[in-house]
Each structure stands twice: as C-alpha cells, then as structure tokens.
C-alpha cells in the first residue's frame, strides 16, 4: 500500500521530500544538506534501490512493505555530542514500534530487535555542519528472503497490529525530535531508557574495533552511552564498534 501523502504533508509540511523511487534516501539527504535544506527535513522513498547499512551492508526493503527514510539534522549542540543522535534514533524507533503492541530491544548502538531478530537498521552520517540519520525497518515483510529469516524479522511476522507506514514514520520522527532535545540537557534519562532495552547485557559477545576482533561479556551501557564489556577482571568502554553479536 502506498503512503498517505496527505497525512505526511499535513505533519511535515515543507520538510517532506518524497520519492517514488530513489537510490538511497541517505544519499539524497546528504545532497539536500549540502544545498542548504532546512533542519528536520525528512526524505522518504516508496522504493529504495541501493539502501545501505553500516560498513557498506545492503538493506532489503520490499515495495509497499518496508519503511525507508532519512532525517536531515543541523544540531545546535556541540559536535562532540553528535554520535548520541545515533543512539537516540534506536530509542525513537523502539518507541514507535510500541504502538503496535510490541516491546523491542536495542542492540547497541542502534539495531532494533524483536525476539532477538533485527527489525530495523540505522545509519548515521555526518558532514561539517549537518548530520543525516537513515532508518530502514520491516513493517509488512512476512516474505523476507529465506537467507534473512534467521537474523531478521518484520512487524507483520511478529503479530503487530495494523498500522500504516506513515503512522510508524511520524511516530519515529516525533519521538526522535523529543529525545534529541535531551541529548545536551538530560542525557542520563536517555541512558536509562537504553539500559531498559539493552539486548546484550549479561551476554558473551564478539565485535570489531577497526579490524581487531574482540570478545567479552556485555555489562550494559555506560553513563556516556558507551558499551561496557568485561574482559577478564577489567571492564572496557567502547564508544564505537561494529559487527556486534552474541556468542552461544
């Protein structure tokens, strides 16, 4: 089913940039940012042909069933805090999904999981004076490719109630705006929310730091939003890591 553009335009106004087909909403958001587009611009596509995730991974998005959009941000707080936008995005998606009667978890930094399987991926990219947060999640994709079914899921597969894609999109956008306001003023509140949803706490995990593969036991989320990992008798703090996964 197509987006209800009247609903989206009614809420987003001139901030909405809608495309029937696009290579990547993040690429378009980066282009718009360089052209002076306003803070809070939202780029939405019915079909995304070259969506991507962290470290160049692709993102599957079935036509009319997935949700792919990017937000253009011009933060007014210090740049050192910008990485927190990525954490906030995961929380915003989780909050929006709650409206469907589900309680998702967040796998640090921002993968959103239901029942241990990924329902949403988030990619943040930053330029000199703006940032872009791209969000892709599976709404009605009960027909996920076989090779993805062990690691990915959709709201439909998980028995979510019937909500239109624009409802999820606007829910994410509204929650994100509210949470982003707290990044510089009440980050401890956001950290507590992250801790409540942490999918990795207490589990043995492996992950990449650069090209170095490491492992340890996740001790949760630190006060600065970092990942805490116990290795032997020492708890190490990671503000950046990739390919994080629990070990059996």
TrEMBL record:
InterPro entries: aa-tRNA-synth_II/BPL/LPL (IPR045864), Biotin_CoA_COase_ligase (IPR004408), BPL_LPL_catalytic (IPR004143)
Keywords: Ligase
Annotated BPL/LPL catalytic domain residues: 1-184
Molecular-function GO terms, alphabetical: biotin--[biotin carboxyl-carrier protein] ligase activity
A GO-annotated cellular component: cytoplasm
Superkingdom as given in the UniProt entry: Bacteria
Pfam families in the cross-refs: BPL_LplA_LipB (PF03099)
CDD domains, sorted: BPL
Protein name per the record: BPL/LPL catalytic domain-containing protein
Organism for this UniProt entry: Roseibacillus persicicus
